Amino acid sequence: MSNHVAHLAPKPKLWGSCRFSIAFCVFLASVQMAMLRDNLGIALLCMSKPVGNFTCEPNDATVIPTLPWIDQKKNCEFEWDSATRGRLLGSFMYGYISTTMAGGIISNNYGAKLPFMIAVYGNIIFHMLCPSAALIHTELFFACRFIQGMFVGLMAGPFFQLFSAWMSDDESSILLSFGFSGFSFGTILSYPMSGFLCGSNVHGFGGWSLIFYVPAIISISFIFYFHRYLYDVPDNHPKISPEEYTYLFQNVGVSQEPPVIPWLSIFTSLPFIAYMLCYSAFLWNVFTMMNLMPMYLQTMLGIQTSESGYLYCIPFILTFLMRNFNAITYPMVKDFSGLSHTACRKLYCCFGCIMVITSLLSIIFEENITKLHIMVAISINLALGDFAYSGGFFPTLLDLAPNYAGLLSGLSTFIAFLVACPSTLINSIIIKQNTREEWNTVLWIIVAMFIFIMCFYLIFGSASLQLWSIDKLEIPERGTFRTTLFNASRSMSVARPTHIF
Q: Which end of the chain is flanked by fewer CB atoms within 10 Å, N or C?
């Protein structure tokens, strides 16, 4: 080892560092993704005629902002039944899963910034086209959301690929949890904002289309930060300090990749299978809570759109706080308990699964559901259930195979979303008359899933480096923090150019 890295460098402060700026880029991208994805549940309630005997919440604005030559519709004028709503809610996810693998492969070969920025721009552009598309034809609206999802799908691989080059083991819990807490924060913003915008009237302009325009405009401001602070690897960053570079060089270097990607080993790896099963069940639960529970509040409890928007942000506020709580306390719990990394992850995963199961059973068996009861149950489901996600299985992907972080992130996201995306459509087929029995069937499906994945992960889950992901252990040379997909020791500044964006 050369003299300039012969001794271990002290850890530079995290606040204000390049490591934190990368995590903040992931946080902002997560916020954008959640805002532009999760608002459709409230938007459809605002756009469509109510189901059953519920009254519409009309907006007295004289103009719904869209393209001027397109015939307009006011709030609650779209005649979409439950099946159509379910299909529209699922359109984003169908597009998303179609490009997750592409995002992982591109980020593994050419770096994370290229697919990251393409996803950011495409997401904003097609989200702003959604109102006009909805007015022209329902299928065009579906196609617009589908293409929007395709752009966002490119983001799955870059997230983990960025962290694999900028995150040491002792900072993994903090940076991962902070970065991905942006999803909860974006949802916190999305629900009350959507409920408010639905009934807004600014000098005669307002209504449902603002639910699409305003979040997109907010997201545009994030782009300036990405251009200034987002870099694939430390070698490319023009403002990284020598101290931080040396620290990352010594703590983020990984083993050499095998000459050929071990596809058979990947797909037969029980720890990776356990990871994908947990991810799939987690997404199924989140999609159900996110997309259908606003309808539950309306049909079962008679809560109108504006109120449900504010109420429904409460569970996501708690989830955001809990995700960052897990990031801070996980190292403390691990050190205090003396448990291995794998045992501690399993402990968190099982606790989160039990919380999800308990919360849903409380809804199923409670005879007289109240507003307070349902909000407490959903809060427990999402906030305490997040122990299974942020403290349990999700961070282990970097432990299992750090060499293939981008590739496996894209692969696992593709499979998990492929399993979970039909949840919205399946649930909408089950819920035809909005009866208590139909809703309980939806919840029982989730309970069964979580019982299964809790047992499976307890037996087969792992947070240990898998031998199939390595060729030989070595300290990489400067400029090869992450080797390429084809095992070439190229300079990262050449292999992953930053001048494209």
A: N
